[in-house]
TrEMBL record:
Pfam families for the chain: FAD_binding_4
Name of the featured protein: Delta(24)-sterol reductase
Ranges where the FAD-binding PCMH-type domain occurs: 45-231
GO biological process: steroid metabolic process
Length: 567
């Protein structure tokens, strides 16, 4: 068997859950889609109502809501009440992992009112947003001004708070880094109820660098100031087909945005947006985008494609046409380009509604798409959820750019999941060591895509049912994820925590660096108040006893360090 050949697997005997999953589309069409559409519409009306208010009114409401949160935190009795969690229902989160930490006794703080864009400062080029502002909401506000966040995550429902405390990426991340790298300041309520503003160069600079990836376990985020950039009305998108083996596809992807002469910061050589989709082991399409004016887009001979219309071909299938017709260029309205993957949830929509991409469905019912991920989770139940954890993969592998080819071969060999999404991002070298960090000495290697200040990484997005599952063969989902995590640890990769994780606590801290995070946990009183990031991300139910014992161990360590005599 060659290195790229997948192992032979025996056939799997079907159980009742298989049949339920196959016909789940009935519940999606008649229950999930109508409710989703209603919720989207009501949310939109709420956003419009918020936009009608002056910034002064929004700020006044924000200040009042902050006071309520502080008052609520001060009501907590540490000896009787559980650890602090938000009051948000577990199924509302967009992530795929079980949000089971809320099954343990906890002290709820309601942040549901924090969903306003507080200010658009055109002079400082800053958007000040509350944590529940989502990407669809912020682009509706900024794009008409020819402004946008430097990194706009593709799915409408992704929130500012989730992208900061967790993980956020877009096709512009090869220029600006991850979503959290574009934040200028955080407004955080600490465990003692104090409100602080953390920036990269003030007295809370350690907290500023520790917040990304911390999953809200250092304090409660109530606002963030995020970098804005000037944009144009259209995105000029070039679709370039690539054919070859997986290593050759990886190199084609790297060449699409990383000059071989190392001039990575040259805007003339580097596109504004980049993504690649690997459709099978021998075919891919590399897409690059550059902002274009309305005048350029409407010149004679240029093709404008409004991909946001409900009846349009799903974006990943539209891009795939380049494999047959060859390289082509078109202009897409900028906001529609930002949210190009929303309607079909990348390609997950094909599993949720097998006929959802058909012409008749798109014309008749496409306006109902997409189903809300939260509702899909709310209607699946324990058995279906466990089935998806075993028979379905939603993982992102953040790996150094030069290891993308190896990662693709590993995914093919162990999972056989296609399509695969590739999106590059800078991982900056910082004066401190946060939870994720570049390889030591990367700047001396002068590899393609790297600069002196940042190592180029890539998100290898693996979302779909594995080949063995589609063929009816035995597949060990938990075992495959464990192997994936081991591979990432060995190759200095990182696993976003929204995904299902099989990591032990020891391996979690082999993948991520605990130093700055634990230092800030102790310094700012989070130990004993907020759950640790590992236990918040850990798969499976968390008993109150397990969580409290883990926190007590951290608490005793913190006190021991404080009580040490000074020489």
């Amino acid at each position: 068997m060659s290195d790229l050949e997948a192992p032979l697997r025996p056939k799997r005997k079907k159980i009742w859950v298989d049949y339920f999953v196959n016909f789940r589309w009935i519940i999606v069409i008649f229950v999930v889609l109508p409710i989703s559409f209603t919720l989207y519409f009501l949310t939109y009306l709420g956003d419009v109502r918020s936009e009608w208010k002056s910034y002064k009114t929004r700020q006044k409401e924000h200040d009042e809501n902050v006071k309520k949160v502080i008052k609520r935190l001060k009501q907590r009795n540490p000896s009787k009440d559980g650890l602090v969690c938000t009051a948000r229902k577990p199924w509302i989160a967009v992530g795929m992992r079980n949000v089971d930490y809320k099954r343990a006794r906890h002290f709820e703080v309601d942040l549901s009112a924090f969903r306003n864009v507080l200010e658009i400062d055109k002079e400082r080029m800053i958007a000040r947003c509350e944590p529940l502002v989502n990407m669809g909401q912020i682009t509706r506000v900024t794009v008409p001004m020819n402004l946008a966040l430097a990194v706009v995550a593709e799915l409408d429902d992704l929130t500012v708070g989730g992208l900061i405390n967790g993980y956020g990426i877009e096709g512009s991340s090869h220029k600006y880094g991850l979503f959290s790298d574009t934040v200028v300041a955080y407004e955080i309520i600490l465990a003692d109820g104090s409100l602080v503003r953390a920036t990269r160069d003030n007295e809370y600079s350690d907290l500023f660098h520790a917040i990304p990836w911390s999953q809200g376990t250092l304090g409660l985020l109530v606002a963030a100031e995020i970098k804005l950039i000037p944009i144009k009305e259209y995105m000029k998108v070039t679709y370039e087909p690539v054919v070859g083996n997986l290593k050759e596809l990886a190199q084609g992807y790297i060449d699409s945005f990383a000059p071989r002469d190392g001039d990575q910061d040259n805007d003339e050589k580097v596109p504004d947006f980049v993504e690649t989709m690997i459709y099978n082991p021998t075919e891919a399409v590399c897409m690059t985008g550059r902002y274009a004016s309305k005048e350029e887009a409407k010149k004679k001979g240029n093709k404008i494609n409004s991909v946001g219309w409900w009846f349009k071909t799903w974006f990943y299938q539209h891009a795939q046409t380049a494999l047959k017709k060859g390289k082509f260029v078109e202009y897409i309205p900028t906001r529609e380009y930002y949210h190009r993957h929303t309607r079909c949830l990348y390609w997950e929509g094909k599993l949720i509604l097998p006929f959802g991409d058909q012409c008749w469905f798109r014309f008749l019912f496409g306006w109902l798409m997409p189903p809300k991920v939260s509702l899909l989770k709310a209607t699946q139940g324990e058995a279906i959820r466990n089935y998806y954890h075993e028979m379905h993969v939603i993982q992102d592998m953040l790996v150094p750019l030069y290891k993308v080819g190896d990662a693709l071969e590993w995914v093919h060999r162990e999972m056989e999941v296609y399509p695969i999404w590739l999106c590059p991002h800078k991982l900056f070298k910082l004066p401190v060591k946060p939870m994720i960090y570049p390889e030591p000495g990367f700047e001396l290697q002068r590899r393609q895509g790297d600069t002196q200040t940042a190592q180029m990484y890539t998100d290898v997005g693996v979302y779909y049912a594995p080949g063995p599952v589609l063929r009816g063969e035995v597949f060990d989902g938990a075992g495959a994820v464990q192997k994936l995590e081991s591979w990432m640890i060995e190759n200095h990769g990182f696993q976003p925590q929204y995904a299902v994780s099989e990591l032990s606590e020891k391996n979690f801290w082999r993948m991520f660096d605990a130093g700055l995070y634990e230092q800030c946990r102790k310094k700012y009183g989070a130990v004993g108040t907020f759950m640790s990031v590992y236990y918040k991300s850990k798969k499976g139910r968390k008993t109150e006893k397990e969580v409290q014992e883990a926190e007590q161990a951290h608490l005793e360590t913190a006190y021991a360090e404080v009580d040490q005599p000074v020489d």
